Amino acid sequence: MESGNRGVSCETPAILTWHLTKRYGKARGIEDVNLNVHEGEIFGFIGPNGAGKSTTIRTLLGLIRRTSGEASIFGLDCDRDRTHILEQVGYLPSEVFYYDGMRARDLLKYAASFYRKDCSARIRELSAKLGLNLDQKVEDMSLGNRKKVGIVQGLMHSPRLIILDEPTSGLDPLVQRAFFDLMLEENRRGATILFSSHILSEVQRICDRVAIIREGRVVAVRSVAEMRRSAVKRVTIGFAESSTAAAAAVRTLEAMPGVRSLNADAIGASASAGSDAQSSGGSDSGSGAGGDRIASGTASASFLYEGDCNALIAALAGLDLADVEIAEPTLEEVFMHYYQPDGDSGELCALDARTAEAQNRGMTENRGAAERPAR
Ligand SMILES: Nc1ncnc2c1ncn2[C@@H]1O[C@H](COP(=O)(O)OP(=O)(O)OP(=O)(O)O)[C@@H](O)[C@H]1O
């Protein structure tokens, strides 16, 4: 499924942050976050628990005060112009809490009274799409149904920007599907969507671009297509039989620059190249997928490779192989690539942080100083 609105505007960015930093006392929230979300985009924001997604969102919505840096939505300052911003934004928080004793219908009517438009038809339409019973008391609802109330509340005023923080938790697969269809519809209508999640398949499903956040810092901003086409490849090789030659081949690969997450269980050789196999997470998802495609009965090895493809082909040519497959890595593998612990790959992570910053800065500078949020 792809984002429906290809007419991304080149005007004022929907969201622009500039070295946005939030500290909780001395504790890290987010550091130097630079984001540039174009109007009309579905922009993913991914990272594990505690990475800083909710902090970024709450700072954008003016729910918490930034420590330093700048942030704007449609050119309006997130602190100073908060009231005007909130009229144009629909927000679905990761957890929804409501007053007890109210039916969904009354609660949504009350919430709608904050907007200068009649939202009743839209409330009925959205509730029907999500299968929400408006007559039920919210306190009697399941977690998933309470989440539906939150979705209707976030969308009923047809906002220009929709901010979703882990939106699908608690929704069953059928409702998730209806929800994603709804988001694509909203995007076709012209809405920009910021979609925070730690579930890659969701991001891949609807987003145009993604920012990856790690320990409070944005380490990469990529199009989903670009992430999938990244220089990293998943290589799976098959040997005619488990043999000392196969074990030697694995040792050769282990020593080769650019080889990571080497998984060679079937050969009985060392199952990993250093700590990469574990830390990158690639061994689980990758070897399973690749290894299954190598004929059964043969020993196989699977690894991620990033580097000169000629060097890879030359190395493989020197091995006695029965089969070889070079494939795009899964999004999961690409994602984990940005999450290697410091140490071996510390330089890579630092590089990615610089690259992300350069991409954002370049985008901002190229598109004119006027795009810097005014303070
Ligand atoms: N109110 C708070 N007081 C102190 N530290 C906080 C507070 N809120 C968040 N943090 C810290 O800020 C960092 C970022 O947290 P945040 O909730 O933004 O991450 P997240 O990516 O949204 O995680 P999750 O997916 O678990 O919601 C974490 O280290 C967290 O412990």
Automatic annotation (TrEMBL):
Residues 15-240 form the ABC transporter domain. The keyword Endoplasmic reticulum does not apply. Its main location: membrane. It comes from the Bacteria. Belongs to the ABC transporter superfamily. It is a peripheral membrane protein. One of its GO terms (biological process) is response to antibiotic. Residues 272-291 are annotated as: Disordered. Keywords: Antibiotic resistance, ATP-binding, Nucleotide-binding, Transport. It comes from Bifidobacterium vespertilionis. It is found in: Cell membrane. Transmembrane segments: none annotated. Gene3D superfamilies: P-loop containing nucleotide triphosphate hydrolases. This is ABC transporter ATP-binding protein.
